[in-house]
Recover the amino acids of this structure.
């Protein structure tokens, strides 16, 4: 909301500076979003007279002016404006002045050989409009040497504030003034309105057919009005706060909306069908053509104001086009009603109508203000438009808004952290309009003013239904007791500014803090570091992507399809982070960076209907080539790179490597022949890895090999906090023996290694594959696998015969398991 | 006394040693003199044939000679080894301007930690030192956790500001599912899940249907919650001031608290830090920058979770992780955080081998 300072001063007697007002507003919880102070921006520009304007000697389109500044000086100005002429008055900027329209600070200049000591300004250069057809041409009587903004009446700063959703009362100039006065920045001026004597019976009667639509409404007609444009002061005021003046009657309703936070509506009596205006819920199929030109299809949950022809207004939100006032209106009917904030909020949101009326009604307005506001509006209409007022028509009744709240003085310290004298506590409440109902040494009970519906207001709890009944009841009782007190503590604190509360560091609960992370969280952090230390860039990608791409990587259940996506390419929760990373690889490739290694620790989403909606996954994608270097040529990434990443994570997270099994039933987004699954036992899937399926690669617009993996962090059991056993440190040197086997190409290398490892477990400590050969030196369909076995004697040095025996066992075991033949 | 033949042998050996150009030649000399059939060995073997009266003297002379030759051999060997080393060192050359071999199996050894991950690590370290634990929850959340329990009923004007993404269907308890718009549901989950005292932070992904230069439909927040007896607004101020100063590494960072409103706290406040609007530098400068929202936990929120507000109170806060990350590092733009642009990632990444820790400094 915006308001000019002069309007505030109509309600607040103060000599505080603009700065002090802004600072105080922010401190007491009314955030200042901006201040437009033309006096500060344009204050140095003065009214000057052109003594003489002649053609510039060296430029056809320029003129050379002699300008009377008004302080006895004469300056030379080079000017390109076509309207510059001898004798005119305009606005002058001198060197050092900042020109808002151009964003530069004026300097002494010389233009085509002629000195230019100042500048005559256009409206646009002053930031006052778009007019740049020439320099400002002021009337002859404009006072020479005077500040332009002051003379033009532009020196009224406009303050823009952001009002929080609880403070309906602060959405008015008077409400702001009241808060500022309470904060010690002046005195709230009185606002007395004498009732208008009625001259004739009300031509329209109110009827409340459904209390959901409205609880209390007043109305009054004024006949013989002339509805022309508003006077200039009212137009200026509305323009200053960003409204468009329409006509006096409409402008008056807007004036009260902002002046006292009391939205009003005026009907044109001649356009209302029948003699009754009814507050009711909309009927099925009912429509409203609103003042904003839009037609709304109403629902039975919308409260309307209807005449004999149907809905004429969406009550408390927006009026109808048919029955509104225009230039031809001679008799108007003022509506001053009270609506249910919840219904207004829901209706407003349902139809997406944002109006000044709605924003006030949904926060709640002062229920006691209706009669006074109606009288004030009547008076203003008579003043601006003439006419005589009818009797007041009324339906419903003023709601019982009166309530009390109690504050124990100690709570200001115990909750608010501030030691404040009791007198000051009470004084602050009184200044805000609370009245003392009772007070003793320990506490004060106050009557809450009618405009503060945020204090000690009703409001249901939303307790967890699974709470034990007793616990829920006790908590609810506690809340009813404490909440109004919290409201008051907040009021007392904010008026003095929270800077007054001393900061206290949190007490130490344990001299040495316990770990902040649970074991599972440690695993995620560790996985991230493992991947990064393997050359992967840790990424953060969106959890949603387009459904078609998601479908490439897994299931796309409807339960993971957003109802209101912000864009069609962000409509489905991803089945795996691999999808997002593969897309990222494609984006990088499109930028000329085809070789990437990207990792992410993030969510893979599952249908919430099935229970768990999210799995924690460490995923990675490598694309393109390894980096070429002088020692080794570049090579395409392959599935084993991804396997290495997955195994590195799995190993770092404490899974015993001996327990990890490999199967080849990887998900369908992988290449079926170049992918695998790492398992711990037959059921637990630890990880998947592989080359992405060629069709997936193609669909993403990627070229060349792309490999990926995903490690399911939730599947990894928490490592047992067992103490480690002692290390095995045999006194005897190990010895190593190499073997080369020729096997069918279809034999998994792992079978050869496992057979060798298990050949003689007491001696074979380790077996590694150190060479793999496939080529024309071997028969078709055969490969050579060379392994090195480490034999670790424990008791004594092995004899040649024993070594012979164990190597024989190894060869036999491998041969038996794989049909391998020892290479000669 | 050395007889002539011994003197000749010695001279001969000396000459041979001097002529040995390398260790192999030296060894040949050793074999020729001291080997099984070497010249000196031969003389020693022939000692038996020497008359008894001369035998002792000759034997002594021979042994002395043997010792001398061995010493000469050793000296020559040392010299030759030194020469050989010098020659080798002279010959061995590696172009040390070559880049080192990449050690990682991937594209380059240039992995790093995303700035958001890094900030979460730093938050964890700092709040961890103040006794906070990290809790996490699902992105797809029931609307009671995201709104209702937090005192944001369906009609509340604050809901409109949240631009919620809705998911079809409901959870097991029949709650409407949303993508959580804030990390505040973790306040509720924690209070329902464990008895006070509570000190938790909840960093995580959040979603709102808003997409422009300064908003992303997915972003990160960190929620904080402290519930205990006797926790006051003074503690809120102290805790957040301590955190902000530690996080930004400015021990006298100006921190300002302004009254505000959130449905789930009362009193509520916005927190500003001092900075220079023109240079973007944090600390001095006289301008204020809003950085987070906080407040004392609303009694309704406590009661919704079954806690009696007469017994328990505390504070909660929430801040944008991207925002504090951008401020700390002077990063101008939000959008690249989620782009996974390799160049951006390489530039802003943190070293995985230097995890955030208070003892090493943050």
């Amino acid at each position: 909301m915006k308001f000019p300072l002069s309007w505030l001063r109509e309600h607040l007697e103060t000599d505080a500076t603009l700065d002090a007002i802004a600072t105080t507003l922010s401190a007491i919880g009314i955030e200042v979003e901006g201040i437009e102070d033309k006096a500060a921006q344009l204050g140095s520009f003065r009214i000057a007279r052109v003594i003489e304007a002649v053609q510039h000697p060296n430029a056809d389109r320029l003129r050379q002016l002699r300008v009377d500044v008004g302080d006895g000086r004469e300056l030379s100005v080079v000017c390109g404006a076509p309207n510059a002429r001898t004798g005119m008055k305009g606005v002058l900027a001198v060197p050092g002045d900042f020109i808002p329209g151009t964003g530069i600070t004026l300097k002494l200049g010389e233009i085509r050989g002629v000195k230019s000591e100042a500048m005559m300004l256009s409206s646009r250069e002053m930031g006052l409009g778009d007019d740049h057809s020439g320099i400002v041409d002021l009337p002859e009587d404009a006072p020479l040497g005077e500040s332009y903004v002051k003379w033009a009446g532009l020196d009224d700063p406009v303050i823009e504030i952001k009002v929080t959703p609880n403070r309906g009362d602060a959405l008015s100039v008077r409400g702001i003034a009241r808060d500022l006065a309470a904060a010690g920045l002046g005195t709230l001026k009185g606002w007395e309105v004498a009732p208008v004597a009625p001259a004739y019976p009300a031509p329209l009667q109110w009827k409340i057919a459904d209390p959901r639509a409205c609880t209390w409404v007043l109305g009054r007609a004024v006949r013989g009005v002339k509805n022309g444009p508003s006077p200039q002061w009212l137009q200026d005021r509305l323009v200053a706060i960003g409204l468009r003046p329409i006509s006096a009657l409409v402008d008056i309703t807007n004036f009260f909306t902002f002046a006292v936070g009391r939205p009003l509506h005026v009907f044109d009596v001649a356009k209302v069908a029948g003699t009754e205006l009814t507050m009711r819920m909309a009927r099925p199929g009912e429509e409203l053509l609103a003042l904003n030109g839009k037609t709304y299809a109403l629902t039975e949950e919308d409260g309307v104001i209807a005449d004999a022809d149907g809905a004429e207004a969406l009550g408390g939100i927006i009026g109808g086009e048919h029955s509104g006032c225009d230039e031809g209106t001679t008799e108007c009917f003022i509506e001053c009603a009270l609506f249910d904030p919840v219904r207004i909020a829901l209706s407003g949101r349902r139809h997406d109508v944002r109006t000044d009326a709605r924003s006030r009604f949904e926060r709640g307005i002062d229920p006691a203000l209706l009669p006074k506001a109606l009288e004030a509006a009547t008076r203003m209409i008579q003043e601006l438009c003439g006419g005589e007022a009818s009797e007041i028509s009324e339906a419903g009744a003023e709601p019982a808004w009166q309530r009390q709240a109690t504050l124990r003085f100690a709570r200001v310290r115990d909750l608010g952290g501030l030691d404040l004298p009791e007198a000051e506590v009470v004084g602050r409440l009184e200044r805000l309009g609370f009245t003392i109902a009772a007070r003793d040494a320990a506490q004060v009970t106050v009557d809450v003013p009618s405009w503060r519906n945020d204090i000690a207001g009703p409001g249901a709890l939303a307790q967890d239904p699974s709470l034990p009944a007793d616990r829920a009841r006790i908590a609810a009782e506690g809340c009813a007791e404490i909440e109004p007190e919290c409201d008051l503590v907040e009021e007392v604190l904010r008026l003095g500014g929270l800077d007054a509360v001393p900061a206290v560091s949190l007490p130490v609960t344990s001299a040495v803090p316990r770990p902040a992370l649970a074991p599972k969280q440690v695993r995620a952090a560790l996985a991230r570091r493992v991947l990064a230390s393997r050359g992967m860039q840790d990424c953060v990608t969106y959890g949603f992507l387009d459904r078609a791409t998601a479908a490439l990587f897994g299931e796309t259940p409807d339960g993971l399809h957003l109802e209101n996506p912000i864009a069609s390419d962000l409509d489905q929760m991803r089945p795996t982070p691999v999808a997002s990373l593969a897309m990222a690889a494609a984006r990088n490739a499109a930028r000329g960076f085809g070789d990437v290694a990207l990792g992410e620790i993030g969510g893979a989403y599952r249908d919430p209907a099935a229970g768990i909606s999210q799995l924690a996954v460490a995923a990675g994608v490598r694309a393109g080539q390894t980096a070429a270097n002088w020692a080794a040529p570049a090579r395409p990434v392959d599935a084993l790179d991804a396997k290495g990443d997955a195994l590195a994570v799995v190993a770092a997270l404490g899974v015993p490597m001996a327990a990890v099994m490999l199967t080849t039933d990887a998900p369908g987004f992988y290449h079926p022949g170049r992918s695998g699954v790492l398992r711990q036992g037959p059921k637990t899937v630890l990880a998947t890895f592989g080359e992405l399926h060629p069709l997936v690669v193609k669909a993403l617009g990627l070229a060349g090999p792309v490999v990926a993996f995903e490690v399911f962090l939730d599947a990894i059991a928490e490592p047992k906090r067992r103490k480690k056993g002692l290390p095995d440190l045999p006194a005897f040197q190990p010895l190593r023996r190499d073997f080369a086997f020729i096997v069918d190409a279809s034999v998994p290398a792992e079978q050869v290694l496992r057979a060798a490892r298990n050949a003689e477990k007491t001696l074979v400590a380790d077996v590694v594959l150190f060479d793999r050969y496939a080529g024309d030196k071997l028969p078709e369909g055969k490969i050579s696998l060379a392994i090195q076995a480490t034999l670790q004697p424990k008791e004594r040095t092995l004899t040649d015969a024993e070594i012979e025996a164990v190597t024989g066992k190894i060869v036999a075991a491998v041969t038996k398991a794989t049909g391998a033949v020892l290479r000669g | 006394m050395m007889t002539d033949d011994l003197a000749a042998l010695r001279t001969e050996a000396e000459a041979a040693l001097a002529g040995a150009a390398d260790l192999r030649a030296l060894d040949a000399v050793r074999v020729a003199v001291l080997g099984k059939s070497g010249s000196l060995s031969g003389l020693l073997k022939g000692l038996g044939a020497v008359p008894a009266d001369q035998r002792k003297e000759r034997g002594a002379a021979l042994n002395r000679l043997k010792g001398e030759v061995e010493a000469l051999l050793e000296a020559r060997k040392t010299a030759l080894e030194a020469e050989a080393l010098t020659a080798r060192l002279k010959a061995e050359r590696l172009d040390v301007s070559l880049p080192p071999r990449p050690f990682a199996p991937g594209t380059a050894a240039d992995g790093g930690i995303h700035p958001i991950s890094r900030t979460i690590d730093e938050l964890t370290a700092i709040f961890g030192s103040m006794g906070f634990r990290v809790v996490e929850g699902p992105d797809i959340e029931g609307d009671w956790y995201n709104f209702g329990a937090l005192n944001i009923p369906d009609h509340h004007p604050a809901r409109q500001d949240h631009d919620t993404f809705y998911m079809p269907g409901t959870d097991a308890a029949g709650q409407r599912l949303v993508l959580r718009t804030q990390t505040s549901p973790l306040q509720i989950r924690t209070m329902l899940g464990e008895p006070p005292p509570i000190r938790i932070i909840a960093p995580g992904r959040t979603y709102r249907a808003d997409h422009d230069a300064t908003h992303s439909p997915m972003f990160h927040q960190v929620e904080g919650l402290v519930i205990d007896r006797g926790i006051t607004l003074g503690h809120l101020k102290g805790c957040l001031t301590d955190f902000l100063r530690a996080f930004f590494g400015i021990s006298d960072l100006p921190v300002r608290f302004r009254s505000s409103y959130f449905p789930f706290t009362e009193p509520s406040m916005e927190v500003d830090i001092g900075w220079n609007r023109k240079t973007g530098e944090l600390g001095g400068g006289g301008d204020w920058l809003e950085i987070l929202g906080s407040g004392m936990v609303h009694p309704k929120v406590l009661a919704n979770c079954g806690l009696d507000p007469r017994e328990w109170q505390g504070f909660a806060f929430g801040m944008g992780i991207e925002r504090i990350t951008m401020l700390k590092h002077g990063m101008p733009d939000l959008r690249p955080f989620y782009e996974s642009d390799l160049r951006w990632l390489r530039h802003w990444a943190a070293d995985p081998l230097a995890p955030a820790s208070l003892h090493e400094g943050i």
User: Anything to note?
Assistant: Residues 115-348 of chain B form a domain with the BirA Bifunctional Protein; domain 2 fold (CATH 3.30.930.10). Residues 52-91 of chain B form the longest helix (40 residues). DSSP finds twelve helices and ten strands in chain B.
